Amino acid sequence: MYFALTDEQRALAETARDYLADRFDLTAVRAVFEDTAGDGHPAELWKAFAEQGWLAVLVPEENDGIGLGLLDAQVLARAFGTGAVPGPWLPTVLAGEAVRLAGSPAQRAAVLGPLAAGELVATVALRAPGGSFDQSGVGVTADAGPGGARLTGTASPVEYAGVARTAVVAAKEPDGGIGLYLVDPASPSVTVTALDTYDGTTRLGGLVLDGATGERLPESNAAVLAELNRRGAVLTAADLVGIARAALTRTIEYDKTRVQFGRPVGGFQVIKHTLADLHVGVLMAEHAVLYAAHAVDAELPDAELAVAVAKAKAGDAAQRATAAMIQYHGGIGYTWEHEAHFFYKRAKRLVATFGDAGEHLDRIAALSIDA
Amino acid sequence: MDLTFTPQEEKFRSELRGWLDANIPAAWRDPGFWRTVPDDEGFELRRDWERRKYEAGYGGIAWPTEYGGLGGTPGMKAIYDEEMALARAPLSANGLGLTFLAPTVMAIGTDQQKRDIIGPMLRNEVIWCQGFSEPGAGSDLAALRTSGVLDGDEYVVNGQKIWTTNAMHGDKLFALVRTEQGSEAHRGISMLLIDMHQPGVEARPLRQISGASEFAEVFFTDARVKASECLGGVGNGWKTAMMLLSFERGASGISQYATFRRGYDEIVAAARRLGRDTDPTLRRELASRLVELECLRYHAMHVLTQVEQGRDLGSESSITKLQWSEAYQKLFETFDHLLGLDGVVTSPVEDLDLASLQYEAFWTRSVTIWGGSSQVQRNIVAERVLGLPR
């Protein structure tokens, strides 16, 4: 029995944390957060991601990647949550996963090498407004045209749609199935609209396709879409766990030194008990993300349940911890100048990304009540 | 990550499973069985069964062989606990002795104590009770007042203990007694090993909200105990008790998951029988209970890993206690929400007997109190894990 990260995985976490603390701290995050007209994609940071191999982690070695698993990737996602780090890491990595899982050898060669090297920013467009993160939420249809598939419909919100050079678009097909297509967002039949969002640690956009050409990933189907959504949910849960831990740690440090009524407020039992419960919740969420990542890597029979548990638990922990961060900093925590709102807003967005709590609880119910 | 057990551990599992299959009577697997048997008779059945289990080689799984144990790995102990839960094996008649007292004796007992205590305990010849809490010393255990005054080579003990498990069937009691008169708080306490079969010791059962009487009060009126029957040295009782309580670790979470998950499945089955398994709000509530149970299972694997790596868990065991006890209690709150008025009666419809689940629901109100209440555990987590000021 070994339920823990390996030394290598721990070293990876440390490298990521140290780099971010050193080179991209919350001051740098704030610059991106407040530059609402900017693309939210700092070039220096991306270059570092590529140099460190953080974009190559899931890319197979034959495509010039490192060929590690989701357990390794979640180490990075967690570090990015801890630092509230902007940039298109998650959508790029997931687009790579789609190509790895369902692409032809030629597509894999064309996409994965440049992606691992940091030369290709990509994204995934898997649901329409109002949709859930499954087959039913897909808002694009594919029709067979004379020169290949033509895609029509909407996908939104799409992370970093504005800077991605390739989008993996999920589409309903004439036979009732699902296909994944590589689409060039710059093509004339695709309209990309920047979407305003309160979370300045990312950039979101909408895609409207009007007969756009798409290059089908030949092995794609509904099961691959489900697998992609599962992987997205695990990495999002890892980011949430990173957020939750950062919010809790920062709150504890503050409440150890903030004096009211002649003593540190962290000594008051009502605050201690809340923080203790939060710690238990965040720790359980950390366990759940580790287990889910491993369950997907090892194709354990309860992988689907584990992913839903991890996403539901991580979202809950992050929501509570970031709300507590505001509350237990008092008035200062409610100001724009304080960093609490970076974590709070990022958590709010990610809680709803790749399935909100309701969707995942419904899945858990279906797996455990109806089975 | 490697969530598998070794081939030797899996071999142990299959042999143990075979033995349990052959040696647990079918009637015992009925969840209501133990409530149909009178207390005394049930206790003797358990005592005898456990002795046979020991004779078959399944006692003291992770204890050194020199003490009559199996010398097994922490993984084997986890497997043992899980298989016992899955097979609905009866609860140990000597749980407090086996879990707490025996490892403490192995660590700090005298040679005489090692000889006198461990073997008879394994064979269930001596049933051990724990005498810690008092009416005036619950969460604040150091406020205890039961006194022991030296008279020749014996202590004369006066006072009262409470919440004593198995006291009505117990033979001996490891008790915290204030042996230094006038001492306060943690000082001046000794752990005495008191014979319960003497005129100065009287046990009276306490009836709980479930109607059962697992606990009792124990009164000492000039009870006598030899000065040599002190564990860990005179005046060292607090230190000895802290060491003793630290042995509640390992991977009990894996077996708790097995038990609680069965509760979850039984609750779901009852709801289905009443057509109450389709309400979307209640389904989500149930699912959120399962989230906590699954987290308990993952946490148990984390704990087992730490034990196998030789790390000291220390105050982390308070996290484990909070997770299992709160999750278990909330699961049974959902039982009430799911079944509504039908959950009030023992058998709302034919072929559905809720007695065991109702009993368990009452039991869950106790788990956030005994062994350190949730409030005490939160203080420990806040102060010793998070470093918040006292």
TrEMBL record, chain A:
Residue span, Acyl-CoA dehydrogenase/oxidase N-terminal domain: 6-119
Listed GO MF terms: acyl-CoA dehydrogenase activity; flavin adenine dinucleotide binding
Keyword list, A-Z: FAD, Flavoprotein, Oxidoreductase
InterPro entries registered for this protein in UniProt: Acyl-CoA_Oxase/DH_mid-dom_sf, AcylCo_DH-like_C, AcylCo_DH/oxidase_C, AcylCoA_DH/ox_N, AcylCoA_DH/ox_N_sf, AcylCoA_DH/oxidase_NM_dom_sf
Pfam families: Acyl-CoA_dh_1, Acyl-CoA_dh_N
Cofactor(s) required, per the database record: FAD
Domain of life: Bacteria
Record-annotated Acyl-CoA dehydrogenase/oxidase C-terminal domain positions: 232-365
Keyword Electron transport listed: no
Family, per entry: Belongs to the acyl-CoA dehydrogenase family.
Record-given protein name: Acyl-CoA dehydrogenase
Organism from which the protein derives: Pseudofrankia asymbiotica
TrEMBL record, chain B:
Molecular-function GO terms, alphabetical: flavin adenine dinucleotide binding; oxidoreductase activity, acting on the CH-CH group of donors
Residue ranges of every copy of the Acyl-CoA dehydrogenase/oxidase C-terminal domain listed in the record: 235-386
Domain Acyl-CoA dehydrogenase/oxidase N-terminal: 6-125
Keywords: FAD, Flavoprotein, Oxidoreductase
Cofactor: FAD
Endpoints of the signal sequence: none
Matches recorded under Pfam families: Acyl-CoA_dh_1, Acyl-CoA_dh_M, Acyl-CoA_dh_N
Domain of life, per lineage: Bacteria
InterPro entries, per database record: Acyl-CoA_Oxase/DH_mid-dom, Acyl-CoA_Oxase/DH_mid-dom_sf, AcylCo_DH-like_C, AcylCo_DH/oxidase_C, AcylCoA_DH/ox_N, AcylCoA_DH/ox_N_sf, AcylCoA_DH/oxidase_NM_dom_sf, Mycobact_Acyl-CoA_DH
Occurrences of domain Acyl-CoA oxidase/dehydrogenase middle (ranges): 129-222
GO CC terms, sorted: plasma membrane
Similarity comment text for this entry: Belongs to the acyl-CoA dehydrogenase family.
Protein known as: Acyl-CoA dehydrogenase
